[in-house]
Amino acid sequence: MSQLIAKTVARRYGHNIPVISTVASANSTLIAKRRRFHSSEYKLYSDPNVRHKTAPVPPEPNKNPAVGLGPSRDESIGQKRLADFDLAGRVFIVTGGARGLGLCLAEALVETGGKVYCFDREAHPDEDWKEAARRADKWGGTLHYCQQDVQDYKGLDKTVESIANTHRRLDGLIAAAGVQQICPAVDYSHDDVARVMDINYTGVMMTATSAARQMFKWKCHGSMCFIASMSGQVANKGLTSPVYNSSKAAVVQLARNLAMEWSPIRKDGTGGIRVNCLSPGHILTPMVLKNFEEVPGLREKWEAENMMGRLAETTEFKGAALFLLSNASSFMTGNNLVIDGGHTSW
Ligand SMILES: NC(=O)c1ccc[n+]([C@@H]2O[C@H](COP(=O)([O-])OP(=O)(O)OC[C@H]3O[C@@H](n4cnc5c(N)ncnc54)[C@H](O)[C@@H]3O)[C@@H](O)[C@H]2O)c1
């Protein structure tokens, strides 16, 4: 075979090339080079005087804004199944947690060991909430209820502070309190615009800043998730909700800006708070069921608008909330996770 190659080369280039010997000598040069490299490498790492100059050294923690946010190797590698998702002992606040999506996401945190405080303006939570609280024991987490309107900024700040003081920590927030108002733009009153924005946008801002103050105080590095909506990116076909949709766009932009301010860990140990948004498509919740009563044919229209031909259940967002609030998303901040059955993708 080698003679055949030599003949072919000779025919093409008009002279004899010692193919075998060229390959063989190239190989032996390579092997010799490798041997020299490995023996010098061995010397490098076996000589303590050389090693400290060449081996990689982790950056000084205060100069590395990511330290403390990443999952520890001991915790996450082979020690325990999916330890990155473990929230045992951590304390969270979920606004709009009396029912619907907020309650379901609160359950995700409880099921992984979190101590979760649901805030809502309702005097009493739904029957579903009570059922969820009964189940909480089973998972090692706890579920608590506080009647707290996010428009009452002073009361909100006090309630957040008292929770953080009780546990001497606060690890994160899901801001899900929100309202919808269907109304043609020209008929929207100033008061109605102000009310929707005050709950959906200012309420998120004030809850986040109250929580951040406590997280700074207790030097807790953690995560926040604002519930925005795909409606922050597209107008909903069949639904005149100009203020709701723009309030959700504002929340996405708010998350980016707070992430920029709060994500790095400062020299005094404060910071290290990641901030992201979750933007769901249409979900079957009390809010949406009310929309269906108000607008005939809306359900069918919405079902046809996404690639899956159906609306979502609240449980389909639990994994995403757990991901965003846990170490599993430790390198994610200032982002917007859209889960909409493909609605905004075509
Ligand atoms: N359902 C959907 O299709 C959908 C889609 C995308 C985003 N979202 C968002 O998800 C979040 C939850 O919505 P949902 O569908 O579960 O609605 P929902 O009406 O069932 O739940 C909203 C909760 O927020 C509470 N709330 C309202 N105003 C409040 C205030 N001022 N202070 C405290 N609590 C207040 C309500 O009492 C209620 O318990 C909202 O932010 C909503 O905009 C919903």
UniProtKB/TrEMBL annotation:
Molecular function terms, GO-annotated: oxidoreductase activity, acting on NAD(P)H, oxygen as acceptor; oxidoreductase activity, acting on the CH-OH group of donors, NAD or NADP as acceptor
Xref: InterPro entries: NAD(P)-bd_dom_sf (IPR036291), Sc_DH/Rdtase_CS (IPR020904), SDR_fam (IPR002347)
Cross-referenced Pfam families: adh_short_C2
Annotated region described as Disordered, given as residue ranges: 49-73
Keywords: NADP, Oxidoreductase
Family membership: Belongs to the short-chain dehydrogenases/reductases (SDR) family.
Protein name as catalogued: Uncharacterized protein
